[in-house]
Amino acid sequence: SYVLTQSPSVSVAPGQTARITCGGNNIGTKSVHWYQQKPGQAPVLVVHDDSARPSGIPERFSGSNSGNTATLTISRVEAGDEADYYCQVWDTSSDHPVVFGGGAKLTVL
Amino acid sequence: QVQLQESGPGLVKPSETLSLTCNVSGGSISGYDWTWIRQPPGKGLESIAHISYIGSTNYSPSLRSRVAISLDRTKYQLSLKLSSVTAADTAVYYCARLEYGHYSLDYWGQGTLVTVSS
Prior knowledge:
The complex is a heterodimer.
Chain A: E1 9-12, E2 18-23, E3 33-37, E4 44-47, E5 61-66, E6 69-74, E7 83-90, E8 98-100, E9 104-108
Parallel strand pairs in A: 1-9
Antiparallel strand pairs in A: 2-6, 3-4, 3-7, 5-6, 7-8, 7-9
Chain B: E1 3-7, E2 11-12, E3 18-25, E4 33-39, E5 46-51, E6 57-59, E7 67-72, E8 77-82, E9 91-98, E10 105-108, E11 112-116
Parallel strand pairs in B: 2-11
Antiparallel strand pairs in B: 1-3, 3-8, 4-5, 4-9, 5-6, 7-8, 9-10, 9-11
């Protein structure tokens, strides 16, 4: 089955740029989606189809995807961005097509 | 605005069957794929069951022998059954809708905590 690999933690100072990566074999050929999850809350879709933002998501959130790595970039990081972030793809070759990465904890210093 | 609301018992005894429902409101239940996701305390997200808009199903390989997902279009309900539960099945369970096309999870329920304990 398809495996998505995320570094478990990312730390950044307020106002700086955070980059959260998601690795997978030829992930650049798939559509990657990103979710933000704050403690005690359900995940929220922040980027879909590699780089598109749902309505209501700030422009500070952007994404890219190429080769074996997809990246969620958060510019001008704020304290309220501290959360867990998960990448996800749809993989029809897997037994179960909804595949999540292990998640990355973003800490705002 | 589409809203999803999970419901079910918060406590299930070991070896029993966990049954959850997800009520869908504010939008159509037909024409979309749906999925159940779970999250053990302090851990990541795990998709455990998926049902397509035509009713075909997929399950996590580790749970396939114990899990079933179904859709009742007349009641606007998604259901999950997980049999022979153990403490390892303790988790927050979410239902979610899959966006047609590239299959992002665009709407989620708020989640319901299920604890397996005697």
